[in-house]
Structures are given as C-alpha cells and as structure tokens.
Amino acid sequence: xxxxxxxxxxxxxxxxxxxxxxxxxxxxxxxxxxxxxxxxxxxxxxxxxxxxxxxxxxxxxxxxxxxxxxxxxxxxxxxxxxxxxxxxxxxxxxxxxxxxxxxxxxxxxxxxxxxxxxxxxxxxxxxxxxxxxxxxxxxxxxxxxxxxxxxxxxxxxxxxxxxxxxxxxxxxxxxxxxxxxxxxxxxxxxxxxxxxxxxxxxxxxxxxxxxxxxxxxxxxxxxxxxxxxxxxxxxxxxxxxxxxxxxxxxxxxxxxxxxxxxxxxxxxxxxxxxxxxxxxxxxxxxxxxxxxxxxxxxxxxxxxxxxxxxxxxxxxxxxxxxxxxxxxxxxxxxxxxxxxxxxxxxxxxxxxxxxxxxxxxxxxxxxxxxxxxxxxxxxxxxxxxxxxxxxxxxxxxxxxxxx
Length: 403
Ligand code: ADP
What we know:
The chain is α/β, with parallel strands linked by helices. The protein has 2 domains: 5-150, Nucleotidyltransferase, domain 5, CATH 3.30.420; 199-387, Nucleotidyltransferase, domain 5 (2-Layer Sandwich), CATH 3.30.420. It has 15 helices and 14 strands. It has helices at 65-78, 110-118, 127-140, 160-163, 169-174, 184-197, 251-258, 264-273, 276-281, 286-294, 298-322, 332-337, 339-346, 358-362, 387-402, and strands at 5-11, 16-22, 27-35, 42-48, 56-60, 88-95, 106-107, 146-150, 206-212, 216-222, 225-229, 327-331, 369-370, 379-382. The protein has an 8-stranded mixed β-sheet, with helices on both faces. Helix 1 (65-78) packs across helix 3 (127-140) and helix 11 (298-322) packs across helix 13 (339-346). The radius of gyration is 22 Å and the shape is globular. Bound molecules: adenosine-5'-diphosphate. Adenosine-5'-diphosphate binds at residues 213-215, 242, 284-287, 332-334, 337-338.
C-alpha cells in the first residue's frame, strides 16, 4: 500500500503547530503544539486521535526547532506514527508569504527555499520562522517530499486594479510593494466548502468570505478565483482585528512620528499589537467584549460598533466588486461562533438580499450551515475553516501528481 499520511507543520518564531492526517479519508491521526521554543519552560501538547488516546503534556527546555520537531516525532512514535514511518507521504508546510511568484503549492527544493528567503523583507516576522521549520524537517527526512502551501497563493489571481496601491509604480516595483493578501488557504477552502454546501460548482458562483479570527480578512471570490481581499502588503490592512488597526489614513503614521515623537518600531507595535479591539476597549476576545456589552460597558459597545461598521463597509465594497453575490460565508473563531457579530454585520442589508434567520443564526454546530431564511436571494452561511486539511489536501494532491 502506498504512503497516505501527511504531516502539516505551521512553524512560528517560538512555536510549532502540527497535525498528522490520513488522506485516505482525511481523518486526523494526531494534533499538537510546541510552544515557547528556546525558553526554559517550553511546552508540548500532543493529542493522538486515531486510537482514542489521551492528551499528553510535557514541560521542559526545548532549545530550538530541531529539538521541537524531534520531540514531536518522539510523541508521534509512541503511537506508531513517527516521522520515520513509511506511511508518511509528505510534509506540508504553511508558508505565510509567497509573493507574486508562488501561485500554487510547491514542492520544496533549494531554489524554492532561496525564493522564500528572498521574500523575508516583505514578511520579516513570518517567513524566517517558516524557513526554520522547513530546513529542520528536511534535515530529519531528506528523502521525503516537502511542500510549501502559501497564505498568499489564492490571492495571486487578483487583477492589477485590486493588487496595486496608487503610488509611484517604479518605487512600488523596486520594493515589491503591492497587495498580496493573507489567510488565502482559508479563503480558498471556505469558498469551495460554501459552494459544496449549496450544491454548486465553485466556478458557478460568487462568494464573499469573511474570515474573522484574531486576525481578520474579507475576500471577494468570483467563479472560484479571488478578485479582491482586504489584507495588503502585510496583514495590517483592512478589517478591525483583535490587535491590529486595519485601514487608516497612512498620515496617522507621519503624525505619530512627527508630533507624537514615536519611533517606527513603536508605531509598528502600536498598530499591530495594541490597536483593533484591544486598543479600543482593552479586550480582543469577542466573548469578553459581548459579556461587557451585556453589562452595559460603553467602551466595549463602541469597539463592537467600530468592528461592525468596518465589516459592513467591506461587505458593501465586495458586493460592488462582484456585481452579483450568491453567498456570504462567515468563518474562523469570531465568524463561526459569534452570532451577534453575524446578525449585526447583516442588519439593514435586506435590499442587497442579505437576511439572517435569528433561529438558524443561534444554532451551534461544527458543520457548514445556512443562516439565511429559506428562499433568500443570497445565501448567508457559517462555514468552519480547516486550513490544516486544506494544506494536507493540496500537499497530497501534488505528491500524487508527481509520483
Ligand atoms: P487566530 O487563528 O487568528 O488566532 P481564531 O480563528 O482561533 O484566531 O479566532 C480566535 C478568536 O475567536 C478569539 O480571539 C475570540 O475573539 C473569538 N472566539 C472564539 N470562540 C468564540 C465564541 N464562542 N464566541 C465569540 N467569539 C469567539
């Protein structure tokens, strides 16, 4: 029997998230996380899912990514699923920035590594960590196909009119400044899953996808291809997020520097880590914000209102970009769980054919589901995202194709 397992790795600067899937039925065999790599109290959390095993936790020093992956392999090996298993077909890596060049999942070789490295200036936080994960995995299993699945790839179909900023073209090109977009694996997965929910082919429908997690982005998908998305050169642009401001007049930055005396690093931290919901009301968890609103907290209410206002602007914008819309899909932590966000985002949009049925909206489930009333002109849906499954699916398809 041929190898059918895929290990999905999401390597951050001090963490590695992983899932092992069996692609015969897309089932999950194990999931886990290594956190605080490089610290004294690194933590590994591993849950075997195939044999109904219990979650195992382990705290102790894990010096670097190599030690982390070895620890993961040792945990997997306890259930007969180690990295040396002949059943392992490939490793799929989440890579945040693929620039203009990587439009599809790509088998990693030295040239691909060099290109991902060349993109570090436009993804200084993410690509170095992704590269470390890839290099380590290649050292451990040099014989195994390793595939990079890029967060930006789904958005490479955006037309130039959506992808370019209106700044001097030569300056933009010299510094590779353009709108790349992120969360692409999720937007791709959710737009297809929405088509499946409606019994249509992705090619035959237009969808607005709202990925609302701690990071948040919207996309306009025409016939299965992304035509616009709200994140840009970096994940800072667009919607109000947990800790990021999203859209602002860029002159705010000049003002903070000139009048506020802040350094570029301080402004970067302010806009990426101390803005959005947390900057507005001190909390970035929508559950906590809703709880405070229920108690009459005005700052939490204002933060919520600003969040919804921005979301509505993007829904309207993408409606206009697409011309006709067949479905709006809510996904990720907030989109999947926060019924009040969905209700408020759709309120007053009846003229656009957007309606939410209160009872359907209140249902909690892990399955994709409609929340618009029967017969509505536009389907409004909750579609749980599954980036790991999408990475594994794309990785396995590529490996099979090359076999
Ligand atoms: P990311 O992958 O960007 O870190 P997630 O997609 O996991 O984020 O979303 C995390 C966010 O989802 C939390 O910060 C919280 O605001 C929101 N969230 C999670 N569960 C709920 C819930 N039951 N109700 C409302 N919001 C929720």
